[in-house]
Amino acid sequence: MQPLRIALAQIAPRLGLLDENLAHHHALIAEARTGGAGLVVFPELGLTGYLLQDLAAEVAMRLDDPRLLELAAATAAAPGSANGDTPASGGISAIVSFVEESADHRLFIAVALLEDGRVRHVQRKLFLPTYGLFDERRFFAAGDLLRATPSGLGIGVGLSVCEDFWHLAVPQLLALDGAQLLVNVSSSPGRDLAALNEVGLGTATSWRTLLRTYAQLTTSFVVFVNRVGVDESISFWGGSEVIGPNGDAVFSAPLYDEGLYFVDVDLGDVRRERIALPLLRDERLELAIRELDRIVSERAGQTEDSTAEQGAEPGLDVAAR
Amino acid sequence: MSAVGGPRAVPDGAGLFDLPPELAIDTDVARRVIIEFIRGQLRQAGFERAVVGLSGGIDSALVACLVAEAIGPEQLLCLMLPYRTSAAASRADAETVIRQLGCAGDLVDISPMVDAYFGWPESGVVGAAGTEGLIASALRRGNVMARIRMTVLYDRSVTWSGLVVGTSNKTESLIGYTTLFGDAASALNPIGDLYKSQVRQVAAAVGVPEAIIRKAPSADLWPGQTDETEAGFSYPELDRLLYWLVDRRRSVEELDAKGFAPERIAWAMKAVAGSEFKRQVAPIAKLGPRTSGVDYLYPRRRPGSART
Question: Are A26 and A71 in contact (CB under 8 A)?
Fold first, then answer.
């Protein structure tokens, strides 16, 4: 048994009110510790709210911002206590999200792993949706690095933000890079109200399908934390989940209800699943790289597209008609 | 409220009205989203109370029910704003809603204000608009009535310390069957993304009186007027057409292949395009470095925006 208690902070951040949201994070980290959690996960932009527009620059923090460091300090074991003396005195891992301003003044949507009183790892959002009701690329820069990170939980962790999980490569790369626990923090706006699906909301149904599929294909735990509440016209639907490495849901939080939800998992499930279903062992990275290199080169018109019809433009497999 | 979501065998209000299958929605989810939306909007604006203009029709009855559920009936003021030609049955239906909800209700007869402007054609007495006002079209008269109702709602929102909650649905908004700065004016609109067929479905779920759900929708500007005879469309047909055109991005050819009549498609597309101005704020001539709505972009409910 490698038991881990995860606390899912399905909260409704206050738009643009950094100080209030920081105070709420401090309170929930304390509550998660008291509840015996080893990991607490907050949603995308939980410290700032989502629909920021020009507020983004006003709530941005550098990674050495004292407010962020103070939040990180709240994850440390109580001074003088052996780690794990009592649930509240032991340390905790916290995953939080905010607007990060880089040294060259770009603004990123960032998610950070806070552990042992410090900022252990930062992942910048890679894919910024700018279509439909989304306008993220207008206000933010996209991250360029994707890295799994070791963690105090004893396993590798892979962080991602919302839209990152709508790109197949992200969960796969994180798992191949050593993550056994994939975390996606989201501010997913509910839309496409429907009568004829399992949860009455098209967005939720799509996400539930993705999360189960990724957990199974990467044989990893998937932790999804989505916010609730309202920013302007948009309502966020919650529905945070923990999916086991066999693709089955361990826990599904209710839609729209704010709360701190505790979920117990056995991290030993990863080993069992990976022994039984060695998909990651059988991955063909060199094959993927070779074919990706070919596609990139063909799309750029540097080599002839070997899979295209006669007369197709570079990168397009089908000829114009 | 119980757990949200899950498929249901029979849509709400089955038998009460014609519900095209593609327009069926999970009313538990819709209700939950709308309730939280109303609460969130009021809280973020620093208000606890709301004002709704109640016509006796289904849209405003539904909005009143949803607001009462969200913030409690004691925080809601419903205003009935009839003109002297408005149907007596409309007022009776509005009174039923107020009684059922147990909210505050008040009646303001707008006839003296409307007549003071257009005059009294029956007796030839001229109003502020002069002799020309005596022959004003039904359209002009209807627009002025809608804007006077807006004026009263916003005035009473001050004494009630509440926000004006809008009652325009998606169907009438898309075809422009609204009066700019009249019924289209509000601080928030909880049902503006629901087609009329969906309004009916949610109305059935929240307990709007059946008589209100069943009766033919009408602007109630003259006796016997109904939306559907004016538009030459039934709401289920119009809702379906708008759903496929707008929500599902179907082309004219694709709509045609779905069996919609070409003249109906043309009428709807013209109505939607021709009313675009009613759904947007007026353009500002760009001159400076930062211009509202262009490159000065803040959420309406930004920090410090709430009334204190």
Answer: yes
The token pair at A204 is 């939720």
Two tokens at A214?
A: 């990724």
CA distance to partner chain A, nearest, from residue B91 (Å): 32
Segments forming the whole domain that contains residue B110: 21-279
Tell me which residues of chain A, numbers 16 to 45, contact chain B at a CB-CB cutoff of 8 Å: 16-17
Are residues A183 and A313 part of one domain?
A: no
CB B41 within 8 A of CB B47: no
Query: For chain B, how are helix, strand and coil distributed in percent, rounded to 5?
Result: 50, 10, 40
**Same domain, residue pair A108 and A59:** yes
Number of domains in chain A: 2
Gap between the Cα atoms of B49 and B188, Å rounded? 13
B1 belongs to a structural domain: no
Q: Are A49 and A189 contained in the same domain?
A: yes
d(CA B6, CA B8): 6
Instruction: Indicate the pLDDT class of residue B8, thresholds 50, 70 and 90.
Output: low
Do A165 and A307 lie in a common domain? no
Please answer whether residues A202 and B248 qualify as being in contact, where contact means their C-beta atoms are separated by less than 8 angstroms. Answer: no
Residue B289 contacts A, CB cutoff 8 Å: no
- Condensed to tens digits (0 to 9), the pLDDT of residues B94-127 reads 999 999 999 999 999 999 999 999 999 999 999 9
Residue with tokens 């949610």: B202
ipTM of the complex: 0.87
What is the pLDDT at residue B3? 47
How near does any CA of chain A get to the CA of B145, in Å?
29
pLDDT in tens, B246-277: 999 999 999 999 999 999 999 999 999 999 99
In whole angstroms, what is the distance from residue A72 CA to residue A60 CA?
16
DSSP per position, A137-162: HHH-PPP-----B--TTSSEEEEEEG
Domain count within chain B: 1
pLDDT on residue B283 = 93
Q: Which residue has the higher pLDDT, B223 or B84?
A: B84
Closest to A205 measured CA to CA, from B9, B170, B29 = B29
Count of C-beta atoms within a 10 Å radius of residue A51: 23
Domain limits for position A307: 284-321
B228 belongs to a structural domain: yes
Tell me the chain B residues in contact with residue A204 when contact means C-beta distances shorter than 8 Å.
5
Q: Does the residue B298 lie in any domain?
A: no
Residues in chain A closer than 8 A to B4 (CB atoms) = 199-200, 254-256
> The domain spanning residue B180 has which CATH number?
3.40.50.620
Residue B303 lies in a domain: no
